[in-house]
Design brief:
Elements lengths: L3 H4 L6 H5 L3 E3 L15 E4 L5 E4 L10 E5 L8 H15 L36 H12 L11 H4 L46 H10 L8 H9 L2 H11 L6 H12 L8 H6 L8 H11 L18 E3 L15 H4 L7 E3 L21 H9 L4 E2 L25 H13 L18 H5 L1
Antiparallel strand pairs: 1-4, 2-3, 4-7, 5-6
Helix pairs in contact: 3-11, 4-9, 6-9, 11-14, 13-14
Keywords: Electron transport, Heme, Iron, Metal-binding, Oxidoreductase, Periplasm, Peroxidase, Signal, Transport
Subcellular location: Periplasm
Pathway: One-carbon metabolism; methylamine degradation
């Protein structure tokens, strides 16, 4: 049997491989478009069916990728032996685990169980408010067109996303970004890929009022919902009066969204002491995740996200599909191309991946991180450009082999859980039942 000391030094020798990196000018072809992101159909006012173009597929920008020689693969016997040794190491409390591979200055937290959700003092949790928020979440009448519900882009059957590369907005207008999953959104300190909202209440309000997304208006929303007797009754039950305001609508929505949480994954069972909850592959993947794969630089803590913003080479700066990310919120040159680190909890259920939905599969994401993500070429006219994006120094080529990538996938799957089916609630009719029956 190999000693535990040998297991604890698995990462030794990786750094020497970086010196052998070779520049590769042509990136791999982008993965195929998911079937549900193809052109779709919508009904026109005259009853005919019109084709709606799907968001255009984004090719990778002109980049330089740096590859490392992949390390040799292990035999099945070696993998089983190593998994058994790692299981002995990781069966102890996380405070005794091997130190993760993180760069100097990274303020990391150990992977752990999700804490209880904290509700704001000005929007406390009540079951009545959750029920009202659930109704509003599934009701398309909250949008200006009466056709878009929150669930249109955050479908519980699709991992609380929409399964598309980038979403559709009002009147089926293609939007620029992928819809983030709402699972565990209660734990985020900033919302949207660019972090422009600091609370779920603010996030809901921005979407409702956005002219490209739901195109509602406070007065119209109040009048529309206030004309529905069932909603007037619910608002009185929750808030003490029948008055419908956008603030009350967003409070109810946020209260419901804070109940969309996980914490029942194989990884959670492992952390609670059931050490058989992780397969050998996931066990190997856990150690890779924390060390050789360097994932803990950005994906750590109970949420498996640092909540920060990083530039990973996908801003398309100066080209079609350009998205400057956090810069559009702060105006700071250092934020050009930076996007919020997504949580890796329930990662397997939340594709396509990245802010622009570039990768339909988890393996595509892992392959790109394995080569350190793309470095955008700087052309002559951009040499003095103060806004030219700077890729995060945390990204480095890794040299992982196919076994390693499969083990990382197994670990990410172990950090995911099947979504519970949620039946949409019965929505209050526009007029009382007895009136409608006449």
């Amino acid at each position: 049997m190999r000693s535990a000391a040998l297991v604890l030094s698995l990462a030794v020798g990786q750094a020497s491989q970086w010196a052998n990196a070779q520049a590769v000018a042509t990136p791999p072809a982008p993965a195929a478009e998911p079937a549900n992101a193809a052109a779709s159909e919508s009904s026109a006012d005259d009853g005919t069916t019109a084709a709606t173009p799907a968001p255009q597929r984004r090719p990778l920008p002109p980049t330089v990728l740096r590859r490392l020689p992949r390390r040799p693969e292990r035999t099945d016997e070696e993998r089983q032996e190593l998994a058994a040794q790692l299981r002995e190491i990781y069966r102890k409390t996380p405070s005794t685990w091997p130190a993760p591979a993180v760069d100097a200055g990274v303020k990391w937290q150990e992977i752990g169980l999700l804490p209880d959700v904290q509700h704001p003092e000005d929007n406390p949790l009540t079951k009545e408010k959750v029920a009202l928020g659930k109704m509003l979440f599934f009701d398309p009448r909250v949008s200006g067109s009466g056709q878009m519900a929150c669930a249109s882009c955050h479908d519980p059957d699709l991992g609380w996303g929409d399964g598309r590369t980038t979403s559709f907005g009002i009147d089926r207008k293609p939007l620029d970004r992928n819809a983030p999953s709402l699972m565990n959104a209660a734990y985020h300190t900033s919302l949207f890929w660019d972090g422009r909202a600091e609370s779920l209440e603010d996030q809901a309000k921005q979407v409702l009022l956005n002219q490209d997304e739901m195109r509602s208006a406070p007065a119209d929303l109040s009048a529309k919902l206030g004309a529905i007797p069932g909603y007037r009754e619910k608002f009185k039950e929750v808030f003490g009066s029948e008055e419908v305001t956008i603030e009350r609508v967003t409070q109810a929505l946020a209260c419901f969204e804070r109940t969309i949480t996980g914490g029942r994954t194989p990884l959670d069972h492992f952390l609670k002491g059931r050490k058989s909850a992780l397969s050998d592959e996931a066990m190997l993947g856990l150690d890779l995740f924390r060390r050789e794969a360097r994932c803990m630089n950005c994906h750590h803590g109970p949420l498996m996200s640092d909540g920060e913003f990083h530039e990973v080479g996908l801003s398309y700066y100066g080209r079609k599909f350009e998205d400057l990310g956090r810069y559009d919120v702060t105006g700071e040159a250092a934020d050009v191309g930076r996007f919020r680190t997504p949580s890796l909890r329930n990662f397997k259920e939340s594709g396509p991946y990245m802010h622009n939905g570039l990768f339909p599969t988890a393996r595509g994401v892992l392959n790109m991180y394995n080569v350190g993500m793309p470095t955008i070429r700087r052309h002559a006219h951009q040499l003095e450009d103060p806004l030219f994006p700077k890729k995060s120094s945390l990204l480095k080529p890794l040299g992982l082999n196919n076994q390693d990538l499969s083990d990382l996938e197994a670990f990410l799957e172990a950090a995911s859980e099947p979504y519970l089916r949620m039946r949409p609630p019965e929505l209050p009719p526009a007029e009382p039942q007895e009136t409608a029956a006449k």
